[in-house]
C-alpha cells in the first residue's frame, strides 16, 4: 500500500506537470483529459472541461505525485489543493481505511467501481484532510 500526494490545479495543470517533469528530469508525463473519459449521458461534459487534465502522474525521486485540474464549477483554494491518495491492490484494506477515516468526516464519493478502478472513493476526515482511495498498482 502507498500514500501518494495528489495536487489539484485551476486550469493550469498541464503547464504545472510539464514544469515539474522538466525540473525533476522525469519521463514525459501521460496526460488524460476529461474529454478522453467515457461519456456519461447523465452528466454531459461542458466544453470548457474537455481539454482540462483529469489525471497525470510523475515519479519524483521514487514517489508518485499525481495531478489534475478541478472540474469547472468545483471549489479551488490555493493552499488547500492537495490530497493524499491511498493506493492498494487490497480492496479490504481500502474499505477498512475508508470506514475508519469517514468517522466524523465527510464523504465526497462512496467507494465504488469506476471506469479507471475496481474501487475508488474520496472523503475529508474529521481533521479536514482530504483522502482518495484507489484500487490499483502501488
TrEMBL record:
Family annotation (Pfam families): 3-dmu-9_3-mt
PhnB-like domain: residues covered: 5-132
InterPro entries named in the record: Glyas_Bleomycin-R_OHBP_Dase, PhnB-like
CDD domains in UniProt: PhnB_like (cd06588)
Protein name: VOC family protein
Organism: Paenibacillus apii
Amino acid at each position: 500500500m502507498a500514500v501518494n500526494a495528489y495536487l489539484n490545479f485551476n486550469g493550469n495543470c498541464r503547464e504545472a506537470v510539464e514544469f515539474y517533469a522538466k525540473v525533476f528530469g522525469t519521463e514525459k508525463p501521460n496526460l488524460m483529459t476529461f474529454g478522453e473519459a467515457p461519456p456519461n449521458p447523465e452528466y454531459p461534459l461542458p466544453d470548457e472541461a474537455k481539454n482540462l487534465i483529469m489525471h497525470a502522474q510523475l515519479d519524483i525521486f521514487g514517489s508518485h505525485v499525481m495531478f489534475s485540474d478541478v472540474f469547472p464549477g468545483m471549489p479551488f483554494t490555493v493552499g488547500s489543493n492537495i490530497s493524499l491518495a491511498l493506493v492498494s491492490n487490497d480492496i479490504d484494506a481500502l474499505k477498512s481505511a475508508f470506514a475508519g477515516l469517514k468517522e466524523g468526516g465527510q464523504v465526497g464519493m462512496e467507494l465504488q467501481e469506476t471506469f479507471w478502478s475496481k474501487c475508488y472513493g474520496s472523503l475529508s476526515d474529521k481533521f479536514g484532510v482530504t483522502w482518495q482511495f484507489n484500487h490499483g498498482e502501488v
